[in-house]
Amino acid sequence: MSGRPRSFDPEEVLSQAMLTFWRHGYDATGLSQLEAETGLGRQSLYAAFGDKRALFLAAVDHYFKTVIEPGFVAVLDAPGSGLHNVLSVLQSWETVALAPDFSGCLIGNSVAEMGRRDELMAQVLQRKFELMEAALERALKRARQAGEVPRSLNPKVTAQSLLAMAQGLAVLARVRSDPAVVRNVVTSAKALLK
């Protein structure tokens, strides 16, 4: 006899869990809150995703797949000008950081919250940063090869610097959404490409 079929969409549940962790953080998100936000009881959540930690890791993967890949990696890897693609991403920082419901970056928030206290989570989060850095580096290499940026620009170092600025802005904008500050950070990021 097979088990009862699932009567929920796992992607929708992951989206709701992701938003809950993103808004409140890992520690502050309780199981009762996850139940309320996803519409699933504890047993259904555990059966589908495992414990809270496993659900969080699945939510981080979902965040990367639904937010970072289309809005960051795909933009950087799009055909055409590598410089244009990087500038498009930098410009999007301003729009996103000034949104009234801005909650920062789930990956950056989680690193700041958990640090290295959970080695597996730290490795997963570090890998996501590496993927973002690699996408920036690929676009910057294309821009350098096309002569869009100075030949002296180091794509790896510049990618690391831009990622650090993005994460710093994501943290800062959660508590200080001053348009002038956000614009200054974006302008400084663009200056690294000259």
Tell me what the structure shows.
This protein is an all-alpha fold. The protein starts with 9 loop residues before the first helix and ends with a helix. The chain is 74% helix and 0% strand. The chain has 9 helices and no strands.
Question: What attributes does this structure have?
Answer:
mainly alpha, single chain, 194 residues
Structural class: mainly alpha
Distance between the termini: 66 Å
Strand content: under 5%
- Please trace the helix and strand order, writing H or E for each element: HHHHHHHHH
Sheet of most strands: none
Report helical residue fraction. Answer: over 70%
Low-confidence stretches: 1-5
Form type: elongated
Question: Care to count the β-strands?
Answer: 0
Tally of individual helices: 9
What would a concise description of this structure say?
The chain has 194 residues and is mainly α.
Tell me the layout of helices and strands:
Layout lengths: L9 H15 L6 H8 L3 H8 L2 H26 L4 H16 L8 H9 L4 H27 L9 H21 L3 H13 L3
Helix pairs in contact: 1-2, 1-4, 4-5, 4-7, 5-7, 5-9, 6-7, 7-8
